[in-house]
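pinging the channel bc i need a second pair of eyes. not urgent but kinda urgent?? the chain im working w is below, pasted from the shared doc
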Amino acid sequence: MSATSIAPGLDKLTLNLTKEIHVKASLENTFDALIEQLGPENENSQGQMPMQIEAWPGGRWFRDLGGNNGHYWATVQAIKRPELLELCGPLFMSFPVANNVQYRLTKVADGTLITFRHTALGFIPDEMREKMSHGWSSIGDRVKHAAERKK
């Protein structure tokens, strides 16, 4: 018996999303807003989707559904307040993939520049790829608005 397999090309196994977000708020307020928006204030397209983020090296980022149920998204790989938050893990994907997400915050003349990068390696269906950019942009917009309200 013979088996046929079709291996996807490297472009189908990798993902690299980058975004820059200009925030008219201090580094500290922007970092605090980032933690809030990734954690208890998180939303998805259907509305509120509170998450837990343990904002220390090795801390978890997860959705707690109660009763010891939920979804593990990532581990805090690096944190340097208020300049860096780096996460690694499966995120919202239930298939073989490794993800690295970085938020680098830099002080600029009129506030803070967030440089966002999501890099992934593994099987990522095309329909998932299409939704990711919108989802990350939504989080970035919410961080910007929350930080600017705190001024």
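so The chain has one domain: 14-150. and The mean pLDDT is 91. — does that match what u expected or am i reading it wrong
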